[in-house]
User: What shape does this take?
Amino acid sequence: MVVWRILAATAVALTAAGTLAGTGWATAADPRPTVVTGTEYDAGQAAQASKDAQQDAAIGDLQGRVSALESAQATTTPPTTPPPTTDPAPSSSSPPATSSSPAPAPAADRGPSGNTVVLADDFENGFDCGGAWKYLSNQEYSGACAGHSAGTATRLTFPTGSGFDGGHAARFELHPGDLAANGERSEIDTGSGSGANIFHEGDEGWLQERIKVGPGIDPAQQNSTSANNFYILTQWHAGAGSPPLRLNIDKDGSLSIGSNGSGTVPIKTVLSPSEFVQGTWYDIDVHFRMSTDPSKGGAEVYVNGVKKVPWTAGATMADSDSYLKIGEYRNKRDFVGVVYFDDVRLTTP
Assistant: This one.
């Protein structure tokens, strides 16, 4: 400690001396001459520069030694505060810590524990014709999927590496003029009539699906003179007429849910244009109740586990049954549209 104080004091003294010396010949020991020639001035400046350099070196050496002593003292001095205690063991209800971002919080839209799965398709085996899906509708083929010899058409493919998890997804492609029935469409559906995946009055369900919209879609562009601009990605369809409930790309580029004709659920924004980005996967989860009664039917929507649309009442059916359709259905457009679906899951209580 004594050595450290001596060195520190010496460093301060040398620093002060160097500062004083740097003022020129103003000290009593070295009075400044009244007249200085150019040669004398240059020689004096050179001599002073040499002295300054020596002084700076000495000061730097002392400062380095002082820093070394301070570092040594810091490592040998015991801490004045006790070490922190370790975190308590997590309770049984706490989720385990992970290095990655936590998964979306479980929500009712994914289906309460104990629900019955009536449809589940990750598309790893291509088109599940006759299982989850009954019908195929696009410009190349429209009808019962069992009637199509290849089981699918080229407007619907399942490319390797296209899925949410790197596996397979259902890729729907739609070209201008791809007419099927009364619009441009590339869709698959569960079919109407009877069956576990057909909904009737009062039925409740949860639909989970991952959706990614490919580049090139221009929601505002259309050729139809109708004021009804629609670009539907998912429909809960009635036996006839417009879908009472649908997910739609609006002309401003947002994703919405609501009625497209025969239903009465008010249109609500699910994702704003800035939130709904082309080329990005979204986990879209819809909790719904089927009813022709506006006070009994309705829907709510979660995206990536976050509620985006609260429960919104309205008629969700137009007749005796309702069935699910996914893909693309739009009024006339001038561009090729591509949309991917993965991990479609439908459950009921």
User: Anything to note?
Assistant: The domain at 108-348 is CATH 2.60.120.200 (Jelly Rolls). Residues 38-76 form the longest helix (39 residues). Confidence is low (pLDDT under 50) at residues 1-36, 73-109.
